[in-house]
Amino acid sequence: MLWPQSALAIDEKEKTLVLKQVEVVGTKDDIKDIAASAHLIETQDILKHSYDNIDRLLRKIPGVYTREEDGQGLFPNISIRGVDPGRSAKVTIMEDGVLMAPAPYSAPSAYYSPTAGRMSAIEILKGSSQVRYGPHTTGGVINYRATEIPQMQSMFSRTLMGSYGEIRNHTYFGDTLSTGSGRFGYVIENYYRENNGFREIQPTGDFRNGDNTGLQNLEPMIKLMFEPGSSTYQRFEFKFGYTNREANESYLGQPEADFRNNPFRRLAASRFDLYDTEQYRTHIRHFIELTPKTNLVTTAYGSTFWRNWAKLGRCTDTDGTGTTALGLSQCMKDPDGNALLQGQGPGEWRLTNNNRNYYMYGVESQLTHMKDLGATQHTFHAGVRYHYDQIRRFQWHEFYNQDANGFINSQAVGPKGGAGNRRQKTTALAFNVDDQIRWGSWTFKPGARYEQLWQKFENFDSGDSRDRTYGVWAAGGSLDYRFNESTNVFAGIHRGFSVPGPSGATKVGSEQIEEETSIGYELGTRYNRPDLGFRTEVIGFWTDFDNLIGISNLGAGGGGGTEVEDVGEVRTRGIEFMVEYDPSVVGQWSVRNPWYFTATYTDAEFRHATGPNSSAVFKNAAKGNELPYIPEIQFAVGSALIWQDWTLSVDGQYIDSTFGTGDNSTNELDGATGDVRFGKTDSVFLLDLSLAHQLNEHVNLFTNFRNVTDATYLAGRLPEGPRAGAPFQMFGGIEITY
User: Are 192 and 166 in contact (CB under 8 A)?
Assistant: First the structure.
């Protein structure tokens, strides 16, 4: 049986089968037909520098910004075109077309992101064509494409070792077999990573081994496929994945003065902080080609996710005149509090076990139908999804008492549930419809999305129980005109929404958090000449947010969990630019020499004052102030020399300085109060280099040099004070394919 070309695509290089109906972008060649800003990070982009950090990958994409936190990509904070980047809560994150945040409605900021290093590709979609996806459509969509089932027997194994005890292995094997009943395919995969981290915890009188601030990550996966030999083409797919991740990470940074002296130091009080998590995820998918022009894809999915981030949350310093309880960001600016955190003074600190369980499940069907009506060709798409998710907080405190010499002389554990005992849950029914209408050189694509939500919040400590039922909608349209095969212009307008979690949505009166809504506009043009080795794109965007939702107490040190707040009206506008050129294509050189350059200019500002009652990140913003952590200028540039079996690649990224808070303070001051979240980040240019040698058909040797200039920079001030990006690192390894 032939595979229907409308349904499946075959990657000839990798010999894999890809179900096109669950892709967001497709291939780079497909981008020219998308009347919106779309990008694809391919396998070679991930492998070239052995990137496992999604921050480094996404900074090559115009209009996408990331705020670093741990320097290793464990907790990405992603913004698309100016949405609040906190915990990537405003971006719809998917893996193989399936929602992947552990509770995307009830708690989208869940401290989890799929591991970039195990992916075959990453798709990014912005602009007016994203109404097909939800529940967060004000920002955009990121779809991680996991390893695909190969068309023929294949094996891949990539192992590297390097700086700070880095050990990594990615291995998979699979095949597609013809049987009397049909075709059966499989892929079995394991991804493993560990290191000691590049930070060192400050020693104290009773603690000396502070050099392990690293992580350990284990992720096996199996994917199965069956195509029965029936007259009607069908395809069944099953996937199961598991993640076990442990990281010696902390919320705690350090005051800027201390940071400048030793940027890779962690304060002594953070030595008990530990992030531990476990996830099970699965989906079953069925594709059927009802007619040559009609197909239906149905996916049932589910996941469970547990994590406990035991981390420092509050300190009580003793200064001889009494005791004062302080949040960490203020404690670090208090002389006695800072001495306590450094293990050089007496007092007590509180560690919170942020123990939380998440789970979600759902079923989704998407119908595609193609039909000619007169002189127009239509590709009609309609979908429906039932989804349920919840988060259960059951947290507790630990109290540590320290003497003047830095010794812990007592420890007490509070009651389980005493630091947060609550549940949030959401049931959502979503409908989407769009139609791609082609008429000559014109393509028009209108679309709409509606979601009905049932949300409930329960606080078992106070007995408070609240619920709310409401609906949200998004709609948009794009128009594309193609001058010829190489040149087109497009424009779009889109109304988006992003829903709050139940804790905010179910409040009453003026405290109730409404859904974030936005109107986004874009205008762009593309020019694509593969025969000349040249491709370029320029897009202007403008987004008005009626009520940007922000994470209100990120880094506040409380034990009650993350809340959200209405930040109010915000406007973002800018220009995205991309160009790729390989002069060796026309010159027919013996050495290939591809180049690329991407850049984003962004003007993101508050459209009204936020006042003193907002959270630290957004408080006291005046009208016209810049949004925190949205750089004005960001660009990436790179080139490669490919000669016979050798490849040398050089890639650079520039990130502009940003403000840490909405009041645009340049000092660590919240008014007259010291607070390390206030101030600016550093601008920085990061340079990476890689060298690879294809030893033979099956063996590739490679080495990577990360941040080759060893630039030291203040990457972010959240959650609790300045922290550095990763320093110079070097890796080397071997890749075996069969």
Answer: no
**Helix H segments across 588-728?**
none
Q: Which of 324-333, 600-609, 665-674, 696-705 has the lowest mean pLDDT?
A: 324-333
**Element (H or E) spanning 28, and its range?**
helix 28-31
Nearest Cα neighbor of 329 from 65, 723, 727, 724 is: 723
* Radius of gyration for the alpha carbons in the chain, expressed in angstroms and rounded: 26
Contact call for residues 542 and 555 (beta carbons, < 8 A): no
Q: Which two tokens stand for residue 679?
A: 């101030």
Question: What tokens appear for 570 in the block?
Answer: 């915000």
The per-residue DSSP string of 219-250 comes to EEEEEEEEEE--SS-EEEEEEEEEEEEEE---
Cβ(364)–Cβ(299) below 8 Å: yes
Q: Give the integer Cα–Cα distance in Å for 199 and 255.
A: 16
Share of the chain above pLDDT 70, in %: 94
Task: Compute the distance between CA of residue 212 and CA of residue 164 in angstroms, rounded to an integer.
Answer: 9
- 672: CB partners within 8 A, 6+ apart: none
* CA dist., res. 394 & res. 417, Å (int): 5
- For residue 343, give both structure tokens: 């293990």
Could you give phi then psi for residue 329, rounded to 5 degrees?
-65, -30
CB 185 within 8 A of CB 178: no
Q: State the DSSP code for 88.
A: G
Q: Which residue has the higher pLDDT, 445 or 564?
A: 445
Show Cβ contacts of residue 538 under 8 Å, excluding neighbours closer than 6 positions. Answer: 524, 525, 575, 576, 577, 578
Mean pLDDT along residues 622-647: 97
pTM for this model (two decimals):
0.95
For every residue of 354-373, DSSP letters joined together read EEEEEEEEEEEEEEEEEEEE
Helix (H, G, I), strand (E, B) or coil at 493: strand
CA atoms within 13 A on the CB side of 468: 21
